[in-house]
Amino acid sequence: MKLGWIAVAVATVAVFGESPGALSITVQDAQSQVAAADSVYGCVLCHADKRRAFIEGIHSERGIGCHDCHGGDPASLEAVTAHSGTYIGTPDKLATVELCGSCHSDPDRMRQYGLQVGQVAEFRTSRHGQLLLGERNTDAPTCTNCHDAHTILTPDNARSNVHPTNIPGTCAGCHQDESLMAKYGLSTDQFELYRASAHGVGLFERQNFAAPSCVGCHGSHAAMPPQVSEIANVCGQCHVLVRRAFDAGPHGAADRAGNLPGCTACHSNHETERVPPDTIAETCVECHDAESRAAQLGVEAEELIVAAQNDLQAADEAIEELVVAGWQVGDLQFRYQTALTDYLQIAEFQHSLDVEQLEDLGRRVGSISRDIRATAEVSAEQRWEHKLLLVPVWFLTLSAIVLGWFKLRSLKE
User: Fold this and answer.
1) Are 375 and 332 in contact (CB under 8 A)?
2) 3-state SS class at 238
3) List of residues 6+ apart from 117 with CB closer than 8 A
4) Whose CA is closest to 217, among 174, 270, 177?
5) Is residue 363's pLDDT more than 60?
6) Domain residue limits, the chain
């Protein structure tokens, strides 16, 4: 059977009474145009919609054609012969993993593009891979569920399913499906919690691609929820200095002993939030007795951190006052940045619960803040003195006006 548009051409010729010669030319022209102008040849005669999607992707750019994944004879213009031989049609989920892996696990193919070759091996270790490849459970996603089947775009393309800002939505495609997640006892609110978290705000609102998305904590092809003993290590991939302070403190020891769920003990998981300085003690008593030494450490840490925060804010306000007063504040702004750096170190060292270190950093912030505020106070005093000096000037001016008015009036009389 001839393919779609060739049959239409035959019907058109029959209707308008064209000669057999004209029909032969029409078919030959069409065949030559398809073969010469399109890298997938006859496939596009029926699958034009797939071609439009495919040519936007990276595979098309690299010269990969339909037959490289689907088999068959792309040079044929007849369905029977095109779908013969090595033709596999649409691969199922398990076959898709093998098909994608046939290229993406080949070092010689991938080396030239700088791509890793362990994705299939990693996928086998993931929960998705365990379900799909181990248990033959087709609820689990395969490669094309995340990367699309035909429009495969690079991760730096904003339209790609695996672009940093799109990854949470891609994962939510399954993980917000209540009926699907109910089978596995999983909640469906992770995406909404993530959007409101410090990480979600950083990614979506501030467009900070360094902020972790789902794959930053769970992995991509090796997607798995971190074990309790792994949480601090996962967070420590980004929060290196915080992790170092955490390890040095009592919480680090408890984590290594398996008595603490890492960072999520205070910061939660998907809804990762910053603990406000004035709620540190409140957070501590969620686990520790209010009368315990551990809770007291929380109270001391909160007092030191809140004081440093207030000092930093007062210094910032003082600089603003000086700017309004017309002062040159370059040196003061430099000193303020030094105080800000010390304050950020407090945010790191608080995880060690080293009160002495926090006191030292707090004193440094307070010292700089007092110097800046003293400068602002001097400026304010000078402005007040200038205002006082203006009083006699205005008095003399007003007196001169009054005297002048009386003089003018006497002259008129």
Assistant:
1) yes
2) coil
3) 104, 105, 106, 107, 110
4) 270
5) yes
6) 1-89, 90-152, 293-380
